[in-house]
Design a protein that fits this description.
506 residues, seven-stranded mixed beta sheet, six-stranded mixed beta sheet, 38% helix, globular
């Protein structure tokens, strides 16, 4: 469907747009079509593909060439369907990157953030620059896979690619470069790296130089909503499309997801972007860099329209995904809905786990690790798939309570009225109910495709069809339904939460 005549919305004259969001996650990628008529947006999936990392000798890597091939396949499907695409945006997970040589060629394969190369590297960084100084400079939570420690790991290993690199690009910027030939860095994805000063919104070059990380390979930084370039002529010819603009959206998937939160203007809300990771936080007008934020290991990441995402990285649905992978190898496969049904029939509050315990980070036999954790902490050990799943879901809800309470007491200094959940996890009704009861306040779930929606509507903003973040959220509210969950029975949740705090050493 091509563009149609202009219509009026909020005093802005707009034309119907066909926009394409590439949303790449930890296990799959999609090309999503958004049809925006100035008031509402309708979305549909054009192409889905696996995004499975591969173990290559000693490195756990992303198959970046296959990702780009599949992205072009999505665009080709649009062309064959007779769609005129007016814009393209790309969002991915954070921190990971590729290095380019002086000729603009990719050097090696981007390494996965779950690779083992950063084990112990964060502590070595603290020997060079004290932890509190790194936080004061970057305002970012300490995660051993942050780009800062990946690059330091390369330096400590004597990796020659680090000094040979002419340019470093984060994954969404790298993919945009493959499409356009333009090299630049979008702010929200850069803000995940622990290499950005959130006050200046520029590279923390003094810190990088102290860690002997080259700064000459860093590009200029662009805000979300910048037109990066247009498709290369060779891609236009290959796919039979025109010079489609490629837009730097909220290139970090969580930035796009948070943009889609359908909150009312001036509402006091927290958000939870629920997927492989759970990102729980509040939207702020400026970074909050304080000892309390550092102690809670909250992070200041870039948001849309100059906002800051003050948030906590929580392990999320990764744990249940890894459990399912292991169970599928050993027994008849059961889908996630089946696991939820099993969990509903299991004994409540038999045990709790701290979902952010380091043992749950790496791929592997997750059910055995959960059982080991429960044995070590002298709790009842879950045995069945339903029991283990229930322990995970209850523990996630309890960790969300911890996150909301830290926001209120230590970081915001005010009550959070409602928790908005967006992303794929917002479709899990049992987890939503558990979360409302655990946190003792309403949960509003949806939209489930928040990341793609935020991506698409930031494109519309870049093309001048949406005036800003408030209007973007108005479009979300009128375009997608949400489901409200109110707290139910409280028995058991307080005792379980007290046990979680004990397990966390608080």
């Amino acid at each position: 469907m091509a563009r149609v005549g202009a219509i009026e919305f909020g005093g802005i004259s707009v034309a119907k747009l066909n926009l394409m969001a590439y949303d790449l996650g930890a296990s799959s990628g999609r090309a999503m079509l958004g049809e925006f008529d100035g008031k509402k947006i309708e979305i549909s999936e054009l192409h889905r593909f696996l995004n499975e990392p591969v173990q290559l000798c000693r490195r756990f890597c992303w198959d970046i060439q296959r990702e780009f091939f599949e992205m072009k396949a999505g665009l080709l499907k649009a062309q064959r369907a007779g769609l005129k695409i007016d814009g393209i945006g790309i969002d991915t997970w954070g921190v990971d990157f590729g290095l380019l040589n002086k000729n603009g060629d990719l050097m090696g394969i981007p390494v996965h953030y779950r690779d083992s190369r950063t084990e112990g590297v964060m502590e070595k960084a603290f020997e060079i620059v004290p932890k509190d100084k790194i936080f004061e400079e970057t305002g970012l939570a300490f995660m051993n896979f942050n780009t800062l420690y990946q690059l330091l790991a390369m330096r400590l290993e004597g990796d020659p690619a680090l000094d040979a690199a002419k340019t470093m690009l984060f994954v969404p910027d790298l993919l945009a470069y493959f499409f356009t030939g333009e090299m630049a860095t979008e702010y929200t994805i850069a803000s995940t790296s622990q290499m950005i000063n959130p006050r200046t919104r520029d590279w923390a070059k003094d810190l990088l130089e102290k860690l002997n990380i080259p700064t000459g390979m860093l590009t200029g930084i662009q805000p979300a909503g910048t037109v990066r370039g247009h498709l290369l002529g060779q891609i236009q010819e290959e796919l039979g499309v025109g010079a489609i603009p490629v837009i730097a959206v909220g290139s970090h998937d969580t930035a796009s997801a948070v943009a889609s939160v359908p909150a009312q203007k001036d509402a006091t809300f927290a958000y939870l972007s629920s997927g492989t990771w759970s990102l729980l936080g509040a939207e702020m007008p400026h970074p909050v860099i304080s000892p309390e934020v550092m102690a809670a290991n909250y992070t200041n990441e870039g948001g849309i329209s100059g906002t800051t995402r003050l948030l906590k990285n929580i392990m999320g649905l990764w744990i249940i995904q890894e459990c399912k992978r292991e169970w599928d190898r050993r027994a008849d496969a059961v889908d996630f809905a089946g696991l939820v049904k099993m969990a509903e029939g299991a004994k409540p509050f038999m045990a709790q786990i701290d979902v952010d315990d380091p043992r749950f980070m790496a791929p592997g036999n997750m059910p055995a690790r959960i059982q080991e954790y429960c044995r070590e902490t002298h709790q009842e050990v879950p045995q069945s798939r339903g029991e283990i799943s229930r322990v995970v879901y209850e523990s996630l809800a309890l960790k969300y309570r911890w996150g909301v309470e830290r926001l209120e007491k230590d970081l915001l200094g005010k009550h959070v009225d409602v928790l908005h959940i967006v992303g794929g996890g917002s479709k899990n009704e049992m987890l939503n109910k558990f979360t409302a009861s655990a946190i003792g306040r309403p949960v509003v779930a949806g939209p489930s495709e928040g990341t793609a929606i935020g991506n698409l509507l930031v494109q519309a903003m870049a093309l001048g069809e949406i005036s800003g973040l408030d209007q973007l959220r108005e479009v979300v509210r009128v375009s997608f339904p949400t489901q409200e969950y109110l707290p139910e029975r409280q028995e058991g949740w307080d005792d379980a939460y007290a046990n979680l705090l004990k397990l966390m050493g608080e």
